[in-house]
Give the backbone structure.
Amino acid sequence: MTTATPYGTLPPASPVAARKPVSLPRLAEMRERGEKITMLTAYDATFAVVADAAGVECILVGDSLGMVCQGLPSTVGVTLETMCYHTESVARGIRRVQGTCWIIGDLPFGSYQESREQALRSATALMQAGAHMVKLEGGGWTTETVRFLVERGIPVCAHLGLTPQTVHALGGYRVQGRGEESARALERDALALQDAGASMLVLEMVPAALSAQLTEKLPRCHTIGIGAGKDTAGQVLVMHDMLGINLGKNPKFVRNFMQGQGSVLDAMRAYVSAVKDGSFPDNSLHAW
Ligand code: KIV
C-alpha cells in the first residue's frame, strides 16, 4: 500500500506496465516501425514522473525553464548550474519510481560555445546530474563539437530552425528555413550534424514541407518537431504550454491538452496518443 506523504506523493514504481527503458536502440526501433517518438519538457521530479507514467518516451530538461520557472525574458540567462539542478531533480524522481524515460539535458547559452573542451566539461556535468543525452543549438560550427562529444560517448540531440538562445541574432521568434537559400542551409547543417553523430534533432518553427524532407534524409538522426509539422519522427512541446499553464497567447503550434481532461496525467496521455495516432500536430492548424 502506498502511504501518502505531504507535498506530493510519488508512486513506488512507474505505472507504465513492462516498458523497457528507453534507449537509443529502442528509439531507432520505434522509428523503423513508424511509431512516433513523444517528448515533453519537465523540470522537476513530480512532473517528470507523471510524464513517464503517461508513456512519454523522452523528457527534455529544457532551458525553457528560464522562462517558465525562473521568469526570465529568454533562455539566454540560464546557467549550467541551474540546468544541473533541474536535471538532477528530474533524474532523481525517475530513478525513485524506476521510470523508463530517456532524459535529455539542455546545454545552456555560454556553456559550449567557447571550445569543444568547454562543451565536454558542461556535457559531463549534465550527464553526471542524470541526463542520458545532451542538447545543443545551432549548425555550422557546432558540427565539430557534436562529433567531439559523440566520439567521447555522449549522445547528442542537435537543434535547428528557431534556436531560442540566438533569438537576438535571429531578430525574434520567427519561422526559419523559408525560401530556397535558407532551406538549403538548414538541410546542409542537418546532414552535417547527422554525419557528426547527432542521433536526434529538434526542428523548431520550420515549414512542414521542409521538415518532412529533412526527416526522409536523416535516417540515423530522429527529427523531433515543435512547430515543424506532423511528418517528423517525433514531437516535443513545452509542458506548461500543453497544459495551458500560460496566461499569455500560446504560439500557433501549441495545443492545450488539458482541455477536456481531468488531470495532468490524462492530459499527457492525450498528448501521447494524439502524437502516436498522427492527429497532433495538424498541419492546417499548428504548422507553416
Ligand atoms: O528548451 C526547450 O524547452 C527546448 C524546446 C522548446 C525544444 O529547447
Notes: The two ends are 49 Å apart (CA to CA). The beta strands are 37-41, 58-61, 102-106, 133-135, 156-161, 200-204, 222-226, 234-237.
